[in-house]
Amino acid sequence: MSRTVGPISAAEHLAFAQTQRPVSFLQTPAWGRVKTVWRSESLGWYDDGQQVGAGLVLHRPVPRLERYTLAYLPEGPAIDWTGEIDAWLDPLAAYLKAHGAFAIRLGPPVRTHAWTAGQVKEGIADRGIERLTDMAAQVDPVGARVTNQLRDAGWLPQSPEDGFGAGQPQFKYELPLAGKTEDDLLRGMNQLWRRNIKKATKEGVEVTVGEAEDLKAFHDLYVHTAERDRFTPRGLRYFETMFAMMSAEDPDRIRLYLAHHHGDLVAATIMVRAGAHASYLYGASSTAKREVRGSNACQWAMIRDALAAGCEVYNLRGITPTLDADDPHVGLIQFKVGTGGEAVRYVGEWDLPLRPMVYRAFDLYMSRREMKRR
Known about the structure:
InterPro entries: Acyl_CoA_acyltransferase, FEMABX, PG_Glycine_Bridge_Synth
Helix content: 25-40%
Organism: Kribbella antiqua
Family: Belongs to the FemABX family.
CATH topology of the domain at 3-107 and 349-373: Aminopeptidase
CATH class of the domain at 3-107 and 349-373: Alpha Beta
Keywords: Acyltransferase, Cell shape, Cell wall biogenesis/degradation, Peptidoglycan synthesis, Transferase
GO molecular function, one term: aminoacyltransferase activity
């Protein structure tokens, strides 16, 4: 059997993605159109003429060496990761090197470890435990095998110790939905989450699904949240492009949720769906009226809609692995653990240098840029 890799159309890529239950929205053709500062292409894997895999590649040029690119496959590609991965990645490397890539960066959508909500709570309460990785975990043998194969093949791990790097987070919080009812999910939440959901209803918070024209209101609240929580917000145009591109590909791909209390917008969130996965992507909340629990109301609306759509996982996206009660980042996992579910570690992102000298120059450039930001 001779496996090959080559370019495919967006329609061919989307058709393949729609056959996959576990597939990331970052591996759909529309995401390439969202990331306007990158050049994107869709690639397909073939065995004897039969398509068996697909991937979205985002190309980032090297400053002053624009003919070379970093070829990035976020949370992908969509291939069979359970066997020998050289048969999949070797033809990918050959194709991309021949077309000007100096390195490949990818993030296999494969778990390595998982911790229950109960374990996470116990870890936060235990002063002797500082990180998720200090506790026993459920180990995924596929993830362990993929990690070893990547390392043996010369790939370089890129995920930092805190789980957050320039790309996608290695640690995430996920809520399994398969086989569950709404009552099951509520019972799995902690008492505070259940109380906050009830309080939002009692206080008269109304959650609706917004349209593209509501993005300005969302963005105003998002900028307010960024100022309060001290992070750099994305511009309104980015969200407008995201909605336009993703909705054009699939009208159910992306939704905006708005929580109002007596006419005031108190919270807003964005959810995306691909395959059997729904993901919480962005959130915003007002400093005023926090007691009416609009954020909890939005989350519950998204979880219910994901369940009704037949999704198997609701992904609350990135967390840091810290369980240190004195670490300011611990609040993130404390909020998400209230939903029940589990903390999950993925294989993380890995680089394969194809042109080592150019790769080192790019690495130096990125290091210097990061130092300037500090």
